[in-house]
Write a structure and sequence with these properties.
The chain is an alpha+beta fold. It is built from 2 helices and 5 strands; from the N terminus they run E-E-E-H-E-E-H.
């Protein structure tokens, strides 16, 4: 699961009205990735048989969806950390 916050240092959340998680879910869905989300978080749940290449593709799509949603909010998308 991933929690969306406006500021990583202070953990300031996005407001519920900004609906970031749902917007990320919809942007990912348009690109072929299904995930669960609420206004403040998203959950990826790949099957245990997922290959490394498939995981890379999922994360690339998720990164694109994040960039699409966060850019208009004047936030800087941070790279995924593993």
């Amino acid at each position: 699961g991933l929690e969306f916050v406006r500021d990583e240092a202070t953990k300031e959340p996005f407001t519920a009205a900004e609906n970031v998680g749902v917007k990320v879910r919809e942007a990912a869905r348009r690109r072929g990735l299904l995930l669960r989300a609420s206004h403040w978080m998203a959950v990826l749940a790949p099957p245990l048989t997922t290959t490394a290449d498939e995981l890379d593709e999922m994360l690339d799509i998720f990164d694109e969806a994040l960039a699409e949603v966060l850019s208009p909010l004047a936030a800087t998308p941070q790279p995924l950390r593993m």
